[in-house]
Amino acid sequence: xxxxxxxxxxxxxxxxxxxxxxxxxxxxxxxxxxxxxxxxxxxxxxxxxxxxxxxxxxxxxxxxxxxxxxxxxxxxxxxxxxxxxxxxxxxxxxxxxxxxxxxxxxxxxxxxxxxxxxxxxxxxxxxxxxxxxxxxxxxxxxxxxxxxxxxxxxxxxxxxxxxxxxxxxxxxxxxxxxxxxxxxxxxxxxxxxxxxxxxxxxxxxxxxxxxxxxxxxxxxxxxxxxxxxxxxxxxxxxxxxxxxxxxxxxxxxxxxxxxxxxxxxxxxxxxxxxxxxxxxxxxxxxxxxxxxxxxxxxxxxxxxxxxxxxxxxxxxxxxxxxxxxxxxxxxxxxxxxxxxxxxxxxxxxxxxxxxxxxxxxxxxxxxxxxxxxxxxxxxxxxxxxxxxxxxxxxxxxxxxxxxxxxxxxxxxxxxxxxxxxxxxxxxxxxxxxxxxxxxxxxxxxxxxxxxxxxxxxxxxxxxxxxxxxxxxxxxxxxxxxxxxxxxxxxxxxxxxxxxxxxxxxxxxxxxxxxxxxxxxxxxxxxxxxxxxxxxxxxxxxxxxxxxxxxxxxx
Length: 554
Hints:
The structure is a single chain. By secondary structure, this protein is mainly beta. Helices cover 15% and strands 39% of the residues. The protein has seven helices and 34 strands. Strands 11, 13, 14, 17, 18 and 19 form a six-stranded mixed beta sheet that branches. Strands 20, 22, 25, 29, 33 and 34 form a six-stranded antiparallel beta sheet that branches.
């Protein structure tokens, strides 16, 4: 039987065509509506290099006929309302503010932003050296890549860098949260040096440098500084961070400590070496400027210490070594998007390795780490679980107690020193790069006490601080402890401290026949403090307390 053709009612066709027409109208409205909300697009800026007060002309399209809530940023900083001279859909004119930095220019409208164009502020570009040394200083020709995450590898090409690094350095832009009262025009970016701690330097030659983006770096300039001068800046954008890090509550300390040496039974020749810790540089401890030293050190900076060499001390004599510094410290606060955290790569394997101070391979430590973190793979979540376990189970008190990590586990009791070491050992056993830090806490009366805390590394983000002792409430008398100390001291750190070591500093003897002295649980973690050579048969050393001679809070 042949199939029969069914004839549909005429009203069906009207309904069907009406539906098609409605869908077409809806699609067209969505299409044309979306076209009307195109992203702002910059085609050019003029001038590309300018000075404060110059008029910057931005040309392009889709800026909007009126500014309303739209705005421009230069190096991430929005100028004040009075800086805008003209705003049109295809052209914007703005007076260059005194923000002090070169950077990317973008137009922001509603929830979108334009592509970027690079503007260079002539005021922040180092002047060329005049005279016979013209052209001898470092110069950057290119940076590759021009954007990357914290810890990412960057190749700097150019010339005049020097055949080896020595006292030279690469610096990236760094920025603190501005003081609320400070006008936008005065919010200048500073620089953070590539660190050896990460480690940061991978290759250095006359024409090429390979470095890692340092902890705390932000969008802004890269500079190369050598004894022959400073390069012109080159713009770099920090990308891919799984969170934010804010530096605030700036404090400037002047700090000093003496070392007194008294001899009893001495014959010549003799030599006494002293390794005296210097305040370290980091993303949060911005400046460590020597104010005075007496006598002059034999080596000014050897792995974070000043090395003093005292020759031919006489019997019954007293010799004093005195030092003072100006140290600039910031509190830091971190906010992590936990779902964006990646596992650390092999580059940070040195910070997951066991050591005599951090027995991460001890079966008792590895078993405990496994029981704490379980099947969790996210490094940030694992670190938090270890921190919370310490506050809950380690019975952290002010101490001091004897012994190290294993003794703390056996007696189920810890002090600030063993709590910091225990966190790092457990973190390393769980595959998290971690290091202990040592220094002093500063109370409300400017008195200092030795203290220890820790940091762990998050890939593409940098070091995250924590203080198990203060989190547990084990603060020295007179120290202002936050009410939310249990949660705040994981990921955040105050500026009421000075750091003298990050990780343990390994030093080598100057003479294989020397007799060495080690100072355990002091304000720095280093394996060598004193070395007596020759006829220095009997002497005593008195390392004075860290003294705060001045405080300036901003």
